[in-house]
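Question (not urgent): is this output format expected?
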Amino acid sequence: MTTNSVPTVLPAAPGSDRYRSLGFADTAATLPASQSYDLLAAPGPAMCWLTAHELATPEVQLYEVCAQRLRTLRDHVRALFAAHVEGTAPLEEHLRAVNEALTSAPTAPLLAWDLEQGLRRVQTHPIDQAVSRALAALAADAADLLTGPEAGLLAVCGAAPCDRFLLRTHGRRHWCSTRCGDRVRAARAYARRTGAST
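Got this back:
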């Protein structure tokens, strides 16, 4: 399996607009033709992902140890999602890791006051807690998804070997993208023409 230095651009999987943890889980994926990608493989791309998802601000300096913390939590979240989809009990280590992230930093906006705006809520936390706050927010989002009303919609892409997660929001759709759906339909059509089984 090769890891692309420039990942194949895939549209966001259904549901990732509502759950950042779904997009977080999909920052690493296996694709057809023995390709894979990891959007958190290095501090630069990891920082871009955090900033794009409003989990960090540009002045935060991300180091490899921080990117590794993100990748580690992502692996635990993916394992919890997979266990949920498969209907199996999650391993204690995955639950413990997500719970540790949940309690690692405050995620609630702080109360601030100034003469111009008066009282307001702000997401300001010390810069050195930025990654811990992002991890806590992602863990909380994953916990909300896994225990909320849409938990039953969580699925893995049905176009092997793609292993991206999605929410089945359109009837029976179980592909993460049109690209994966087209690939499955093409394989079925080929099998019908040749008499092969899929």
